[in-house]
Structure formats: structure tokens, C-alpha cells
Amino acid sequence: MTYDLADKKVDKDSSKVPDHHDFEKRGCKDRRQRTIPSLKFLFWGGRRKKIRREDDMQKIAIMDSYSQPLFAVIIAILCLSLMDAAMTLYLIGLGAKELNPIMDYFIQKGPAVFITVKYIFTSVAVIIILLIKNTYLPRTQIRTKNLFFFALISFGLVVLWEIYLFFKVVVLAS
Q1: Tens-place pLDDT, residues 17-50
Q2: Which among 9, 78, 80, 117 could bridge 155 via Cys, Cβ 3.0 to 4.6 Å?
Q3: Where is 2: in which H helix or E strand?
């Protein structure tokens, strides 16, 4: 007597035992093969918070859920970026010059354009780093998520420098 198992004919009286792949009960694709979450996580939230398998750390995997400290760092980066933009415009009004030629171009277009473009550039960079935060930088053992702290420190130092310049100009003007 024979029976069909996963499109294979197996003789019940045969001494050959089918391997474990013949007894696969899952009918759909392995959910771990998908690195980008479905859109339902936008409405109901997701559960993927971190990568658990070492193999998956070599791939780009997008998480559904992020930690509160990471959220705070992202908000701080965006706020420091806006502070940098506002202080840059104020210092330019006092006679300073923008050294970055790309940002100088947008300053010439107007303050609203400059602030909008600066915020968009920063936001896009943050989103890209957020999407690939669990990978390693190429040819290093540095996790991509460490770029958040680098950006936070960089923007913090820039704002501190602008505060120094502001007080230097105000003290010299007095």
C-alpha cells in the first residue's frame, strides 16, 4: 500500500524512512526570509526589537520596534540640528560666513529654505541609519547604530562652538 506525502509516493512497507524534510508541515514561506516588515506594523506595531541570530546580523533587517533611549537620541539629534540651523542664521546676521558650500547655497535661497533643507538632510540620514542600525559598517566591527552617538556628539560640539562664537561676538561688541 502506498500513500502520498508531500507529492512523493512512499511505500508503507518499505524500510526506507523519509527524512525530516518530507514531513514539513509549513505551507508558507519562512517568515524569517523577509527582512522588511509588512505595512501592518505601522498601524498595530511590531514585535521585532533585535536580531537574535548571528546569521541574520550579516543582512539588513528592519525592526518594527525601537527602544526609548534610541528614540531620545534621535529627538536630540533633530533638535540639535535645528539649533545649529537657527544659530548659524543668527551668526550670519552678525557677519559670520557659512563654510559648507552646499549649506551656503541654501542660505542664499532664504532662511526658511535653509532650515527646511537642513532638517530634511538630517532626518533622511537618521532614517537610513535607523533602518540599518543592526548591521556592521563595511570592513569594521562597528555597529551602524553607533553612528547615532557620533552624530549626537558632533551636533553637540557644533552647537557648543556656535554658543562660544555667539558669546565672543556679544562680549566683543560690548
Answers
A1: 555 555 556 566 665 565 555 555 545 555 555 6
A2: 80
A3: strand 2-5
Q: What is the pTM for the complete model shown? A: 0.64
Q: Domain limits of the chain? A: 2-58, 68-173
Query: pLDDT digits over 105-143, tens only?
Result: 999 999 999 999 999 999 999 988 888 887 778 888 888
The reported pLDDT for the residue numbered 1 is 47
Q: Is the Cβ–Cβ distance between 145 and 134 less than 8 Å? A: yes
Q: Which residues pair with 143 in a beta bridge?
A: 136
145 burial level (CB within 10 Å; 0-12, 13-18, 19+): middle
Question: For cell 526570509, what's the residue?
Answer: 33
DSSP letters, 7-67, are TEEEETT-SPPP-GGGG----S--GGG--SPPTHHHHH-----S--STGGGGS----S---
**Residues recorded for the chain:** 174
The set of cell numbers assigned to 87 is 544659530
Amino acid (one-letter) located at 107: I
Question: Could you tell me which of 83, 159, 151, 158 has the C-alpha nearest to residue 115?
Answer: 83
